[in-house]
Write a structure and sequence with these properties.
It is built from 1 helix and 10 strands; from the N terminus they run H-E-E-E-E-E-E-E-E-E-E. With about 170 residues, it is mainly beta. Strands 1-2-3-4-5-6-7-10 form an 8-stranded antiparallel barrel. Strand 1 and strand 2 form a beta hairpin. It is elongated. The two termini are about 40 Å apart.
């Protein structure tokens, strides 16, 4: 009976360890977003515990009239689904700067620039391969608190991307 109990404990410990290894301590990659034009963010994740991590993104956005650079920090909670899939939710804040150039005609141009501050939430799903790659899709609504000229105080951001785990 003791051998069966010991075997069960060892097997369960192995399964738990294997499930926890699918979320890496560090991951770096790219996130493609949709907030006011096509945007790209360099994304870094750092595992803080078995179920929590920090994500830091540095992004740039470009559309016909607006250009923006922003930094975002998010604290995330992670839940296992099954077979390498996880879903996560988080909250955080960010800041950035934007510029606006609009040409009305050859001699008429309107320009403006400023900074902005925002709070954000995030919910997403990711798949962690057995080799060091993670694919994800997420939704990050952003509420602009200071200088909301950039987005009329709300910016829904749908993102997708890949990160390499290390």
């Amino acid at each position: 009976m003791k051998k069966i109990l010991l075997t069960a404990v060892v097997v369960l410990a192995g399964i738990t360890t294997q499930a926890q290894e699918s979320i890496s301590k560090n991951a770096i990659g790219l996130r493609l977003g949709s907030n006011d034009g096509i945007g790209v963010e360099a994304s870094y994740q750092r595992l803080l515990s078995d179920k929590n991590r920090l994500e830091i993104d540095l992004g740039w956005r470009s559309s016909n009239d607006y250009d923006a650079v922003k930094a975002t920090g998010l604290y995330q909670w992670i839940w296992d689904i099954e077979g390498g899939f996880h879903w996560y939710a988080g909250a955080g804040a960010g800041l950035g700067s934007w510029s606006y150039d609009y040409y009305v005609g050859p001699n008429h141009r309107y320009s403006d620039n400023d900074f902005f501050f925002f709070v954000a939430g995030q919910v997403g799903i990711e798949y962690n391969f057995k080799f060091p790659l993670q694919l994800f899709v997420d939704f990050r609504p952003e509420i602009y608190l200071i200088n909301n000229d950039y987005h009329d105080s709300f910016g829904p951001d749908f993102g997708t991307g890949a990160r390499f785990k290390f």
